[in-house]
Amino acid sequence: METEKVKIAIIGFGTVGSGVAKILQENAEEITHKTGLQLKLAHVVDMDLVRPRLVTLPEGMLHNDLEKVLSDGEVSIAVVLVGGTDIAGDIQKKLLAAGKNVVTANKALLAERGEEIFETARQHHRCLAFGASCCGGIPVVGAIRTGLTANRISTMYGIVNGTCNYILSEMSESGKEYEVALKEAQAAGFAEADPTLDVNGSDSAHKLAILSLLAFGQKINYYEISTEGIENIQLTDIRYGRELGYVMKLPAIAEQTDKGLSLRVHPSFINENEPLAQVSGPFNAVSIFGDAVGHTSYYGRGAGMMPTASAVVADIIDVARGNAQRVFDTTPTLGCMTKSALMCPPEEIVSRFYLRLTVVDQPGVFAQIANVLGERKISISACLQHESESSDRVPVVIMTHLARQGDMNQAREDMDKLDIVKEKTVCIHVVTPPKDG
Amino acid sequence: METEKVKIAIIGFGTVGSGVAKILQENAEEITHKTGLQLKLAHVVDMDLVRPRLVTLPEGMLHNDLEKVLSDGEVSIAVVLVGGTDIAGDIQKKLLAAGKNVVTANKALLAERGEEIFETARQHHRCLAFGASCCGGIPVVGAIRTGLTANRISTMYGIVNGTCNYILSEMSESGKEYEVALKEAQAAGFAEADPTLDVNGSDSAHKLAILSLLAFGQKINYYEISTEGIENIQLTDIRYGRELGYVMKLPAIAEQTDKGLSLRVHPSFINENEPLAQVSGPFNAVSIFGDAVGHTSYYGRGAGMMPTASAVVADIIDVARGNAQRVFDTTPTLGCMTKSALMCPPEEIVSRFYLRLTVVDQPGVFAQIANVLGERKISISACLQHESESSDRVPVVIMTHLARQGDMNQAREDMDKLDIVKEKTVCIHVVTPPKDG
């Protein structure tokens, strides 16, 4: 069979960039055999020319001059692995304008400035491939864009941030405090030196924005995603949750409701028997519900050098085959060709809730709490109070049935005004993915 | 955005065919919005023109004349949902020769006569898309062909037959006998009137052949897959397995070993904590291990009208976009362009085993058994013997450490020759998917 040569540049020679170079070197023969493509690395651009990396490049391949890539007419694909949303965006736009197709793993850029980047690609009749931007090596972007295209997607539940999942797993399984688990995640390479974007939920929200753009076929405004991180999660709540049969996760949730599309990221209790509750450590999983296919789920390593590099190289191949361009050209949500999704206001979502109140131990306390909840039509499904040594600060844990978020917000305000309530009430969502079968 | 009209014919208007027509009718707008394609059903061909179906077709669309499709120059895609390997193959070849691209869910045909069909497509510069042939709506074919292309795949473990999984789940969870569970599966629509191909493992082997062709990039001879079904599984073994912490499944296994590629389907005990052990009822799951990506897994409904139709329509879209053709053209294993895989001889595979011996209850029995195993260098990892009322037929259950299949075969022969062994020894594989993380 004839083979076709494809010249590639990598911009950003960090962890993932090194992994991509490694795959292109080590699996070259396998890839050519399976696809008929010879993927030839021509340039690797980085500011740092001396730091030792995982792979050894031929003399002269590593340089710091983006212009050389822009002016090399033989390079058809540029892999941009530069983080952030400013310079990274400018680099991508320059490359597209110079006629290069762009493969990227930068979820923040696509979530926050996607429309601008996608429009630049269209203007120059080029495409962007970004399978590596969500969930590392798990081919979930491809699944939504090709495998599930026939479906109206109603719901997605994803554990899409390995750092948070690792921290929550360690807190839950080994009883570590948040700060300890975070430090360990950093030592193990599962968390960045500055973990803010991971632990505050932004990274999950970025991925949710990208997946939703593809799944729901409407423009998504990243800034409308209601996002809450895990920084304030207390071990005591994880323990009470477990006692009631629930595991704490940070799911990214997309749900078509009769009030619009609800997109949200927040710490949530999930029943311990749900498959998503069993996704532990740095792993990711996404459950997608379609009207024809029912429930499908995708699992694997959501980050790391080689898993992410696997997705980048898959995208290189998809671009080289010409397939990425065709899908890009006919996907109206990549750019400004569709209307914005009607978003469900946060207070209109319906959820179960976990509440932990700190109250004084005296007769009639529970009646007062139940009263406040009852006024907002929130009914209690379970409660838990252990015997306490102190009588002026006793924790009472309540699980509710389904309730409007707005009603719950009101009820919390009312409860916290009661004399018997001594601290701000902790409120955590309890989520239940749809049943299939 | 401009839209493109694509005319489609469905050959075979049974369960899945009706599901495809339903999606094309009901989700037409959604599909056009997401892909820019207008999928127009032009012909539905079936011998039975009167049976009521799920969908109502426009007057004249349903007919029994394949020639009308062959001669309709506007039809570019034929969806062939005719079962079996004889007539179905001839129909596919005729359609390809007439210039139609073919979408099919017929795994038996592709596993047994794939080379001939694929070569016909190549000869006429057309393509076949067969994502629906494996695991219903789970986009696992697409994952291997595009999402994981950068990887050398080492191992696949799949629960790919919903009928067997339903039966084994019912036996395991509700203690039903095989015959009872099979009848229930038939009543619930999870098993055919003639369930032979499902329960004897052939259906799983068909799917394994197709997935392996894509995963390992070499020609696969379906008839070399060592295949054993669940027809002879006894409830008593399922119970002993559970007692030891194992769940009975029928996995399809592909494994690169240093003796070649091992492809096999056999009833197996899987540790109850493994994710695959938790796939229950009619669901399917496939775990794939790649050198870069590590462990990824895909889960969903492996059969049924709408899940399979979801995959068929995804393939129609992939063909209409032109993407299926490009992947088909550059996949050397679809046809006779590659050499055959070097297969690992069955006796060379290494596995753990579960043995149930029926022995007389007398001193020295266990020593004799252990002796026979020891001679073949098979060591025991666990054993189980309950107190028995009878003394001439006592069951002894043994779990072994890893052993060569050939050695185990010899040991069984030797054991069954012992005077103390009163019935043929039951031997079931105990499989352990690779660890990742």
Keywords:
homodimer, 437 residues, alpha/beta, Dihydrodipicolinate Reductase, domain 2, Alpha-Beta Plaits, seven-stranded mixed sheet, six-stranded parallel sheet, 15 helices, 36% helix
What does this structure look like?
- 2 copies of one chain form a homodimer.
- By secondary structure, the first copy, chain A, is of the alpha/beta class.
- Among the domains of chain A are: 157-301, Dihydrodipicolinate Reductase, domain 2, CATH 3.30.360; 346-431, Alpha-Beta Plaits, CATH 3.30.70.260.
- Helices cover 36% and strands 24% of the residues of chain A.
- The first copy, chain A, has helices at 15-26, 28-35, 66-70, 87-97, 107-123, 140-147, 162-174, 178-187, 196-199, 202-216, 235-243, 305-320, 323-329, 365-375, 405-417, and strands at 4-11, 37-45, 62-63, 75-80, 101-104, 128-129, 153-159, 226-227, 246-249, 252-257, 260-265, 268-271, 283-290, 294-301, 350-359, 380-384, 394-400, 403-404, 426-431.
- In chain A, strands 9, 12, 15, 16, 17, 18 and 19 form a 7-stranded mixed sheet that branches. Chain A has a 6-stranded parallel sheet with strand order 3-2-1-4-5-6. Chain A has a 6-stranded mixed sheet with strand order 8-11-10-7-13-14.
- In chain A, strand 4 (75-80), helix 4 (87-97) and strand 5 form a beta-alpha-beta unit.
